Amino acid sequence: MIAFTSTLLLLSVLAATSIEPTLASSSISIDKRLDCRAKLDSSLHRELLLNGRPQIGLWKALLKQQKIQHEAKEVEEALFSTDQHLQLQLPLQSTTTTSRPQSKAHSKFGPHCFPQKISHFDDAVNGTFCQRYWIDASSYKEGGPVFLLDGGETSGADRVPFLEQGILQILSNATGGIGIVLEHRYYGDSVPVESFSTDDLRFLNNAEAMEDSANLIRNFKPPSSVLSVEDGALHPNNTAWIYYGGSYAGARAAHMRVQYPHLVWGAIASSAVTHAQINFPEYYDPIQRYAPEECITTLQQAILIIDSLLNHPEPIPTLLKGVFGLSELAGNDDFADVIQAPLGYWQAKNWDPKVGSTHFYEFCDALTAGGAGSKLGLIRIPASIVNYGAYIKQASLQGHPASDIEECFGSQDDTKFQETDLEQTWRLWLFQVCTQWGYFMPAPAEGLPRIVSNQLTLDYTSKVCKQAFPPGKHFTVPIWPDVAEVNNRGDYGIEYERLAFIDGDRDPWRPMTPQSDWAPKRNSSVSKPVHLIFDGVHHYDEADLDGGLATLAYGPARDDMLNTVDADSFLNPLRQKNGLADHSKEPFRIRDVHQLEKNFVGEWVAQFADEKQKREKEKVEE
């Protein structure tokens, strides 16, 4: 998840459906992207804010456009309704339904409501809010465990599919357990405040979120419509609670096991960023190490040339920006930020083609396609920069008015970042970044290989904290994030009995996890499992195939995807087994990690049963 310091997979988002130029220098065909008329839904929200560096300006521009379109639609519907009243002779069945459909997705799982205090630690603050959760007890057998999946920095609704196809279904089905998705405070509809101002966000922190989970575990009673059990049957004294989280939520899974061992019997921390760090250029290291060599070499060379040209006197920098369709963008640093956005596609890779993205490989194909160079005045630029610019224009700016470029991508206007109404959900994870987690992503130090411009400094990548969160009456965002709050909970060395760490070897977040190259080396055991998924990226163990494969891209992107799926899976569409995915169709490395998780969780559950029996026997003997 990081999910995280969010990456602005800006790109694809602004392509307008009415204009579809092609990349003349590339043999690939880039699919028509979501355009300004597209709904700013949870998927697009994650792309823009949680895959690398956040593209806040673009997110806000899309929200503004969406609101304009919504208002126009309401006017149109009102006019239509009036017209229908004036034409009573029309038969009822010929009228058009204009009401917006209500989402009924996953209604069999919830959501349900668990009351939480607005603050568990500030006695001066009264009141509660509804923390949403979803539950599946279809596999439950008496004595089975409860698996609690931490929703992390997104709407809990985004995690609900894992109850039916994914880690919760896999583990619940294997152990006769219950699966629960718990939405994080402030995210989705679990909102305890009336605005996202600096003051109102002060209860959005790691400690409050941990106590939310602990409070639910202590006091949970399943809805009677879902499961009927005796009072206390699911209390942690009587039932093993296993905590699961990925990325940011993965760190909390580890923290929960250590801080609340009497409540959390075991935990699986997937891609868990247990090390917080202010300056995080290492995000780009796995990309440089594992992405196609020709692509990375070409990109490194292009970035060096771009930085050199940006240091020339005008009009060279403006002419360079024009190659990318960004001549109206004032700041060189803002320009550098826009063109680094395709790197966020690396984090979006996934072994399941229906979940993962091939956009990174499309970017590489475009960059390395060859062709003719061009000139900026008297300065010749290579084909790689021409191709780079064409990709950005097509994938990011297609149909986007030049007059809006500064509004979408500029960062000079502080007021742009100071709206605090509840629609400004981009403020949530950013607030956590600015207060506790860090993960600003500047270019590495001079002299080191880099695939982003040196215009991306620490000051630039962190300045939005000061812009977005001015001091409030009750809370002031620190000058730099208090990463010690996170690192004092265990950092790279965090460990505990029945605490597992699962990572992908190519995850750009692995440098912040206990399986970082800088972390102490670990030996895996049933009690303290560790596993590194070959060719894995971000919490690769969380998902599961759902009964079909998506249409694959062409070229290297298609080849990469095919290499991650067993041949028989690709040739024979997946079939459901009793409504559940056929796990035998998973790629070998994913099947292996899921089997590993089932094995050690099974042992943990058996240990709990033994401990419980021992306690009951001792109680009788007393």
Automatic annotation (TrEMBL):
Signal peptide: 1-24
One Gene Ontology term of the molecular function aspect: serine-type exopeptidase activity
GO biological process assignments: proteolysis
Entry keyword set: Carboxypeptidase, Glycoprotein, Hydrolase, Protease, Signal
A Pfam family recorded for this sequence: Peptidase_S28
InterPro entries associated with the record: AB_hydrolase_fold, Peptidase_S28
Family in the record: Belongs to the peptidase S28 family.
Family matches, as PANTHER family: PROTEASE S28 PRO-X CARBOXYPEPTIDASE-RELATED (PTHR11010), SERINE PROTEASE 16 (PTHR11010:SF117)
Name of the molecule in the record: Serine carboxypeptidase
